Amino acid sequence: MKKFISMLSFTLALSLVAAVALPHIKLSGGTVYASSLDELYSKNIVKGYEDGELHPERLLTRAQFARILRLAFTDISHHDVLYSFSDVSKEHWAYNDIQFAVNAGLLKGYDDGRFGPDDNITYEQAAAIICRLLGMGNDYNYPESYISAAIENGISDGIDAVTGTALNREQAAKFIINAIKVKEISKDEDDYYESAFRGYSSVTSAAGGKALKNTAQEDGYAVEAERVGYAESIVSAPGGSYYPYYPEPYNTEEYKKNEENIFKNAATSPLSTFSIDTDTASYSNMRRFILGGQDIPAGSIRSEELINYFDYKKAEPMEGTPFGVKYTVNKCSWNSENLLAMITVSGEELKEPKPSNLVFLIDTSGSMYSRNKLPLVKQALSMLLDKLSAKDKISVVTYASGTEVVLEPTPASEKEKIINAIKGLHAYGSTAGESGINLAYEQAEKNKIDGNNRIILCTDGDFNVGAYTDTELEELITKKRESGIYLSVLGFGMGNYKDSKMETLADKGNGNYAYIDTLREAKKVLVDEMPKTIYTIAKDVKIQVEFNPEKVAEYRLIGYENRALNNEDFENDKKDAGELGSGATVTVLYELVPGNGKISGGLKYQKSEGTGSDELMTVKIRYKKPDLDESELVQMPVTMGEETELSEDFSFAAAVAELGMILNNSEYKGTASYDSVLELASGGIGNDPFGIRCEFLQLVDLLRYKISE
Prior knowledge:
Layout: H1 2-18, E1 25-26, E2 32-33, H2 36-42, H3 62-72, H4 95-103, H5 123-133, H6 144-152, H7 169-186, H8 189-196, H9 220-228, E3 234-236, E4 242-244, E5 264-265, E6 271-275, H10 281-291, H11 303-307, E7 323-332, E8 335-347, E9 356-363, H12 374-385, E10 393-399, E11 403-411, H13 415-423, H14 433-446, E12 452-459, H15 470-480, E13 486-492, H16 499-508, E14 513-516, H17 519-528, H18 530-534, E15 536-547, E16 552-557, E17 578-581, E18 585-594, E19 615-624, E20 632-639, H19 648-663, H20 674-682, H21 692-708
Parallel strand pairs: 9-10, 9-12, 12-13, 13-14
Antiparallel strand pairs: 1-2, 3-4, 5-16, 6-15, 7-8, 8-18, 10-11, 15-17, 15-19, 16-18, 19-20
Helix pairs in contact: 1-2, 1-7, 2-7, 3-4, 5-6, 5-7, 6-21, 12-13, 12-17, 15-16, 19-20, 20-21
């Protein structure tokens, strides 16, 4: 929390300073806001041109970048050795700046003895320079190591560039401002983790790397460590203390691969029926694999979760319903002979949400020791508290070898009490997930209110005591959801991550599922998107699309393979489906083979005749209000629009879908490639306030670079 608060304070300070700088610059993306270049100008680090403009669009040279580094980071330690470059004399205007940057180990010359002062600074060069400055990445795996570190640590936030791209002044300024922020807040990180593991000091390293048992714990970490083969997992923490850390010597992660949707004949199978899905876990998990340089496991990529990770322009709520629907139809980028239809369902934002009865169900078993597990859980839930109101109440339930109610219902306004309860949690023992789930539901039911009753489960999904198979968990949660209590699942960690179990829990528990790989992702899920994560505005939401076979010969739903429903399920109110959160957007893509005006179903005993309608299809949505059990129906006809220009949202969603097909090696990927994904996505960045579309560009660029080696 110290790190997060420090980041917010520093950002606010910069924005206040920027207010007295030059007028706001209109950036190439068309968004007007106080730019990073303004901030550097206000600090006298960059200067304007004679025409009084900062010209953010102009490219930056290596010498100019060296000058900015020297002015921005005056406290960098460096040597006083003079370097000689064939193209930089002592009379060069940036001679001292270049010497400073080279002495500090940030910039390097070329193998032929040149420095290239007038060469444009590229995206990967800037990433490497800033990462060296902050002690991240290495030269052995250039530039991938530096680019990964830049993405993971927020250094390349908001920068819409890829390898080989010459940076303009605004992009370079973003690198510098991001580095200043990271440098400012990183000094608190070691203090936080040392505090997070305080209480483990009695676990020390024994001869031969064996872990000694903590006598304060009956089972203790040491027993669990030896049970799962982690006897050498004691590592030195900041300050010389010791804490357990899982290096994950073998990989036991679990994913469930679904058969890809195929093209269907619109004459013989005119209906496509499925449950909505607002989960996003697949995207952040994919990011973890890419940044770690790992192969992406089969079954880990669910295209709809990649697409729905991003926000798109919302549809206005339709009268009498809690959501709006809109559509776009245009050419398909990976198959020019086909069309791509994009359907967007947008939930309305609740102006005055009802009170919440939240139960934090936290896995504190031995497998949760790693930094990216229990310590990150503590930070994530502490961040959520800042978004809750005094009328909301929090309970904390834990499970390991046993279960415990750590905190009875407490008003969210008593943050210190709640945070202390969370901070006091330690990880050890086995994983009695079934007992933990039962206790959490008991706690939620005992304190049930007229409002939002929800369990938030934080785990790596590694259950090993009680019910633990996907089938057993599905049966357990299916019974529990009848209580009207929602279950959201937040996944953490790596190595023993159980994706299939957590998706099952969230799906059957009428909740959503997200994977938290970093503090930044925790902020996205629990702060920036908190309403859509914990407030449901419509439940059991089903979509059924009826295609006009005169206009659409064949169709294929992209993703949603594990959300498919039988056509008769659409009107069956007893059939479970997905939930829509406050302000959430669900995006659906169909690839369409255009019809020729004739219907050829090939059926012997049926004669099909068209209606002559110009409609491509009709989108039908059936949903229930959160407190009712009877569904309502909304319908919208879809016609082919006259627009031929791709909208930013359409272009970006198509790029994300194309990436999903590449990673899943889809038989329908056509001409899809990383280059075409980058081209499409670059045209769809638009207004990207949190920088997540820019991050997508950088991740795809890393994948492209990897296969080009």
